[in-house]
Amino acid sequence: MAENFPIPTYIVVIFIISLLISTIGNSKPWSASLSHNNRLLALDVAGKLLVDPDSLKSVSSDFGHIVKEHPKAVLCPSTTQDIVSLIKVAYNDSIPFSIAARGHGHSTRGQAMAHDGVVVDMSSLKNHRNGSRTTLEYGLAPLSFTDYLYLTVGGTLSNAGISGQTFRYGPQIANVYEMDVVTGKGELVTCSAYKSSDLFYAVLGGFGQFGIITRARIALEPAPKRVKWVRMLYSNFSTFTKDQEYLISFNGRRQNLALNYLEGSLLMDQGSPNNWRSSFFPSSDHSKIISQVTKHGIIYCLEVAKYYDDHTKNTVDKELQQLIKGLSFLPGLMFEKNVSNVEFLNRVRSGELKLQSQGLWDVPHPWLNLFVPKSRIVDFNNGVFKEIVLKRNITTGPVLVYPMNRNKWDDRMSAVIPEEDVFYAVGFLHSSGFGNWGDFEEQNKEILKFCDNAGIKIKQYLPHHATKEGWINHFGSKWKTFAERKAQFDPKMILAPGQRIFNNI
Ligand SMILES: Cc1cc2nc3c(=O)[nH]c(=O)nc-3n(C[C@H](O)[C@H](O)[C@H](O)COP(=O)(O)OP(=O)(O)OC[C@H]3O[C@@H](n4cnc5c(N)ncnc54)[C@H](O)[C@@H]3O)c2cc1C
Fold this sequence. Notes:
This protein is about 30% helix and about 20% strand. By secondary structure, it is of the alpha+beta class. Among the domains are: about 15-20 and about 135-220, Uridine Diphospho-n-acetylenolpyruvylglucosamine Reductase, domain 3 (2-Layer Sandwich), CATH 3.30.465; about 225-360, FAD-linked oxidases, C-terminal domain (Vanillyl-alcohol Oxidase, Chain A, domain 3), CATH 3.40.462. β7 and β8 form a beta hairpin. α12 (about 375-390) runs antiparallel to α13 (about 435-455). The radius of gyration is 23 Å and the shape is globular.
């Protein structure tokens, strides 16, 4: 099933790691020492290591606000060589210390933390790059986005980078041509599908275990100008998924008929059909939608988008109508928007800013993200959405459910997905108070247990496993290769300890 990247017909430019800026304020250079490692002080990077309480605190938690781990220092590299120097010191030390790259710390389980080690603030590298610029300035955009843009390229390539574009363009990890990676031995390697390919495939979806990505060359295409954005509501889950699967079957990259984006979500009795992640529905439509939710308990919302520009503005409606005409959504419950591409791509940001202004962004996020095989998605709906989620009645955040095609992924990469040709991404994107995130953890556990008991072979996305057996089970047939690659590229197990795959279990 592995497919090579097509030779780029579009321009490919260097896309610098760390798309957006986050800074560590009030930082003081390191003047103390890591007790076990005085050798660091002799290095050039010593001046770029921070140990003041504010710097350490800023990397001791993450978006999840569930885990806390204190490092000994934060490295703010200005060059790739700084990262090479740091890793070499750790590698050559008799008692190596751990090192974690941190993008924006948007992980939810401490994955970018390094207990008693050094956290590398990757945004600092970006701040020192003169050539750093956004692709949109050149009228270009990546083929495959995430729903939320304020993540880093290095962080998403360490997972997969999925969204409504994945069914057609593959995850972000399937759209990479080349990377510069500093391995756990401190070696800087340029890798691609044709050069040091073992490292290349290891790093893609590799949870930061094999090296720190310092440059990535990814596929771009001319950025579309505008987007037709449509939502359709269903009361019947089987009809909803049948229509989703029909639509993603048009997945050729240049087919006129194919959509550019497809997702789906649950609407439950939460007072408003909108949530922090989306304010798509105008208030004038709320009562109509709420009455359906009240009647059915859960309404399933199919969301699609089609890009257009000056050349296609006269045909886009016809093409969209052609796709939609056979669908079985509830009569009268189709909603349409016509927005700029930037507004569409940046759709989650306004929700974030609103929550930030209310002090509700930096709260615990006990998220659970799963890949569910197509053959069991109806069982999942019956056992999880209808039984567990509806009955517990604590889920207020967005719940996503949308399918993707396995043949857009590459099995040589570290990322793990279900065995079936089509599988669903299901995301429970909970926010909670500091006192009650345990309730959501209980629900997450119940969902995982249900799947286990029912024999639904799910895989976690952005996974978290408490035991080594959990990880071995997660990787399945890929575990052996994953462990061998770790021994090859990070034999002293220095990198990304916060994933807790090889360390601290
Ligand atoms: C609001 C929100 C929306 C999201 N939406 C999506 C979405 O639509 N699709 C999706 O796929 N994911 C989504 N995510 C999840 C996101 O992909 C992960 O959180 C991911 O870890 C990226 O976050 P980050 O760039 O801040 O990485 P971090 O959390 O900082 O790091 C994640 C892991 O990658 C490692 N790492 C970071 N940088 C590098 C590097 N340069 N080289 C090697 N390893 C590195 C870290 O050590 C850590 O183990 C979302 C997260 C949030 C908070």
